[in-house]
Amino acid sequence: MFCKNCGKELTGTPEYCPNCGAKVGGSIVQRGKDKTISILLAVFLTYWTWLYTYKKDAWKFWTGLALSIINVLLIIITFGFWVLVGWIVSAGLWLWAVIDIAIKKNEWYSNY
């Protein structure tokens, strides 16, 4: 449970947030991301799954995007000779995304 005003995690049922002093009343919200959604995004959209957890995984998303763009450019420049290497790099990106998302504990997502 988190304070709607400042985002601080709340324990118990306080009347006021100990961090910002805001009245809690009905302002408690549950935050976090869903691990199942992250895994499905990784399986079907590879590195695009890191947009779902962008605040924590922005660098992974931008690395995956950059590698994909480089692959496409190399395939175009080499008239298709780079395709096999491109497939291997794409498979590596896919495996990285799926494994990275799958090994994280549920708490990582709920405390996001």
Task: Give an account of the 3D structure.
With 112 residues, the chain is mainly α. It contains four helices and two strands; from the N terminus they run ββαααα. It has a two-stranded antiparallel sheet. α1 runs antiparallel to α3 (83-103) and α2 (54-77) runs antiparallel to α3. The longest helix is centred in the middle third of the chain and has 24 residues, at 54-77.
List keywords for this structure.
two-stranded antiparallel sheet; 112 residues; mainly alpha; elongated
Mean pLDDT: 84
Oligomer: single chain
Rounded to an integer in angstroms, the radius of gyration calculated over CA atoms is 20 Å
Q: Looking at the structure, what is the overall shape?
A: elongated
Number of domains: 2
Strand order in space, largest sheet = 1-2
The poorly predicted ranges are none
Q: How far from one another are the termini? A: 12 Å
Secondary-structure element series: EEHHHH
- Share of residues in helices: 40-55%
Biggest β-sheet description = 2 strands, antiparallel
| Structural class by sheet pairing and helices | mainly alpha
Short structural summary:
It is built from four helices and two strands, in the order ββαααα. With 112 residues, it is mainly alpha-helical. It folds into two domains: 1-31; 35-110, no CATH class.
